[in-house]
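Reopening: structure tokens for the 3-thiaglutaryl-CoA complex, inputs below.
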Amino acid sequence: QASFDWKDPLNASTTFTDEELAIAETAESYCQERLLPRVLDAYRDEDYDIKILEEMGELGLLGAAIKGYSCAGVSNVASGLITRAVERVDSGYRSGYSVQSALAMGGIDQFASPEVKEKYLPGMAKGKIRGAFGLTEPNHGSDPGSMESVARPHPRKKGFYVLSGSKTWITNSPIAEVLVVWAKLESTGKIRGFLVDRSMCPPGTLETPPIKNKNGLRASITGMIQMDECPVPEEHMFPEVEGLKGPFACLNSARYGIAWGTMGALEDCIDRARTYALERKQFKGNPIAKYQLVQKKLADATTDAAYGILAAAQVGRLKDEGKAFPEMVSMIKRQNCDRALVNARALQEIFGGNAVSDEYGIGRHVANLFVTQTYEGQSDIHSLILGRAITGLQAFC
Ligand code: TGC
Ligand code: FAD
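Re-run output (same inputs, fresh job):
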């Protein structure tokens, strides 16, 4: 790079390997050529095209950091670059992608038995089996440890459990064939993970109604998981892991992905705002990009995006070496989501009244970024995780 590049101000790309850059290019091309043309209608109609996961599967993008089971087995940095490419188009598309890859496939890869992995992961890697991840409940979001969903031995069928309870705000649940669900084993009161296979559930035992009329993330599909004595074979209970460390281990990967993804959304906001500011003229024919206050908004956002990418890449390298700690993930998830939202809101002002038109895309990113700051641990919750690590004192309750 011979001179300053506002699209990569700190030359982050020089820290990526050739393979990582090639993977990023494949993902960017797919996202710009195949996802971008769909997103405006998808967002307007609140319509998630279920073919998207299969298309991503054909390109080897799903569960890309998983080794084996027809997954690509790429580095965590490469997987972050894919996430950034997807969210550059829309956070909702990234949500569908992350839940499939990091939470559902990631959970199965980390905790299921070898037979269950063999049975489900290759189909999930191709996007032919769609997954969801159910942790949040109507009464327990930030505090999943208080969940009410329970699992008990099937009253009539040996070798099966039955699950009862409700999960809400679950990405992909209405379209998922497999659902990774966390519930308390009635006998011990301990949280366990279960792979619920929709095809094994008799009518009335599993319902996944969509949640409609969202004012953000409209290009993704969200729903509930309602279980009423829903049967699950014993071998579908994750054998080794018990307690909250199960779901949180999955969340470590998904939160890491969001830290990359939100930087993609912010970069798209910068690109759109810069283009608009150069074209829009006010006061004696000057482009508004000439005015200092507009330039400051672009400078702030570009700086935060550049810092955010380098921080995510550093945590990715540490993950690849097995040296990343959950608090590092909390730090980049919180910081990148917060800075993406604050900057996107400031950049939205550059569009004046046109910001209100969905054709300009900026309002969609702002509404989406509010959600990214809320799910997978709302930012204040990550402040408390960091505060606990810094002081040794627990502030949650
Ligand atoms: P706490 O005492 O902190 O921990 C309980 C046990 O879990 C272990 N643990 C972790 N293990 C691995 N990775 C982590 N990040 C971990 N964090 C905690 C911990 O060591 C302990 O293990 P053990 O062996 O001692 O039992 O639990 P707490 O109940 O005090 O937790 C508090 C808090 C606030 C940190 C936690 O509950 C929290 O993070 N809340 C946020 C909830 C959340 O993130 N929900 C996400 C739902 S999924 C989602 O939003 C998907 S959206 C996806 C999309 O569409 O893109
Ligand atoms: P609450 O826990 O009620 O929190 C409300 C507010 O209170 C927040 O600002 C929070 O920070 C604050 N607060 C709570 N406790 C404290 C405290 N001790 N100290 C200070 N402040 C506190 N979940 C899944 O399991 N799977 C999914 O796929 C999934 N997808 C989602 C998709 C969408 C579109 C949305 C909106 C949510 C999704 N979620 C999913 C749920 C998400 O993880 C929760 O919304 C999130 O964890 C927050 O929980 P809550 O909404 O119950 O808020």
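The mean pLDDT is 97. The pocket of 3-thiaglutaryl-CoA (ligand 1) is lined by residues 95, 98-99, 133, 135-136, 142-145, 171, 243-245, 248-249, 251-252, 254, 326, 375-377, 381, 385, 396 (CB under 6 Å). Marking as resolved unless the reporter disagrees.
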